[in-house]
Amino acid sequence: MSGDTKRLRAVVKGVGSALPNRCVTNKELEETVDTSDEWIVQRTGIRQRYIAGEGETTSTLGIRAAQAALDRAGLTPDDIDLIVCATSTPDYTFPSTATMIQAGLGCTHGVAFDVQAVCAGFVFAVSTAEKFLVSGSHKRALVIGAETFSRILDWQDRTTCVLFGDGAGAMVLEAEEQSVAAAGGNLPRGVLATCLRSDGRHRAKLYVDGGPSTTKTVGFLRMEGKEVFRFAVGQVTDVMAETFASAGITAEDLDWFVPHQANRRIIDASAQKFGIPTEKVVLTVQDHGNTSAASIPLALSVACGDGRIKPGDLVMIEAIGGGFTWGAAVLRW
Ligand SMILES: CC(C)(COP(=O)(O)OP(=O)(O)OC[C@H]1O[C@@H](n2cnc3c(N)ncnc32)[C@H](O)[C@@H]1OP(=O)(O)O)[C@@H](O)C(=O)NCCC(=O)NCCS
């Protein structure tokens, strides 16, 4: 192959995030459900979460996160021609949250649509946007994870309501032509590899017991916590191994591991399986709880904001969600 062969890659230009105004500590939850700060911290690592108030919705959080990502990238909504929003808690059954964000940003061209893979949604959205960008059909994408899980929680059910929170995160990806050969030490940047999986046989382990076509209601989140835990620790490593292999790297090459922030124990177990040291793991579950599709872009935003993730760093994102759905991606910043 000649040294000047080029290919398009989806390169990260900026990330941003948004949280609701109200922060709810474990102590506050003790007043409304039979739980304790000690139990929640010990089982999950969660210390607080943010809960959307009146006027705060998935799309309003998504718009704020998207605007923050555009600001970091030095771009305007006019520069964007693709918006992919991962959410399981849309403002309405339709239109999509992505089109509401598009309108909220004042963006009148391009295409916007939602992706639904629950907590794995952001990884699915990154993988989807990457395929549009490397095909050459679109130039710049806003990839958003935005959720208000507080609106589908049964606040009487202590086994679920203490685990989740609301928020949004966004990433700008841009199609960039790069040399295939790493000439002059120029390593490829952007999304290097992704791997997605799903297995619908596990529906009953994590689901919402309502919907437009069944109950005609929104429903509440239901979960067999132990089963989800077992699957998350046991299965998610297959997509990580496959992603490492197709990117041609090993876990040792990683600068940062940014997994879905559901539970500290699941994160620790996944990192340990690949020998990823704790110092390389970005952990935000203690501050945000499980914000489903928003958790990874929120964590990326924190780690970019405080200077941990820098240009050139090799980052793996990874998540599992209801379905089950699960996936991983490797990106060089
Ligand atoms: C939910 C989870 C933290 C529960 O931890 P666990 O060790 O499996 O706990 P169990 O469900 O066995 O419950 C242990 C006890 O704590 C109790 N308990 C459950 N929730 C509680 C709470 N919020 N506060 C206090 N006690 C609680 C249970 O009732 C049970 O009591 P019992 O022994 O008297 O019956 C854990 O299963 C988990 O993290 N699962 C994965 C969840 C997840 O990440 N989902 C999202 C994936 S995207």
Automatic annotation (TrEMBL):
Q: Where is the Beta-ketoacyl-[acyl-carrier-protein] synthase III N-terminal domain?
A: 113-179
Domain Beta-ketoacyl-[acyl-carrier-protein] synthase III C-terminal positions: 245-333
Q: Which reaction does it catalyse?
A: malonyl-[ACP] + acetyl-CoA + H(+) = 3-oxobutanoyl-[ACP] + CO2 + CoA
Molecular function terms from GO: 3-oxoacyl-[acyl-carrier-protein] synthase activity; beta-ketoacyl-acyl-carrier-protein synthase III activity
Instruction: List residues traversing the bilayer.
Output: none
According to its UniProt record, the EC number is 2.3.1.180
Gene3D superfamilies, sorted: 3.40.47.10
Which BP terms does GO give this entry?
Answer: fatty acid biosynthetic process; secondary metabolite biosynthetic process
* One GO cellular component, as annotated: cytoplasm
Q: What does this protein do?
A: Catalyzes the condensation reaction of fatty acid synthesis by the addition to an acyl acceptor of two carbons from malonyl-ACP. Catalyzes the first condensation reaction which initiates fatty acid synthesis and may therefore play a role in governing the total rate of fatty acid production. Possesses both acetoacetyl-ACP synthase and acetyl transacylase activities. Its substrate specificity determines the biosynthesis of branched-chain and/or straight-chain of fatty acids.
Record-stated family: Belongs to the thiolase-like superfamily. FabH family.
Q: How does it assemble?
A: Homodimer.
The record, for HAMAP family, names: FabH
Name of the protein this chain belongs to: Beta-ketoacyl-[acyl-carrier-protein] synthase III
Which species is this UniProt entry from? Rhodoblastus acidophilus (Rhodopseudomonas acidophila)
Q: What lineage does UniProt assign to this protein's organism?
A: Bacteria, Pseudomonadati, Pseudomonadota, Alphaproteobacteria, Hyphomicrobiales
What's the name of its gene?
Answer: fabH
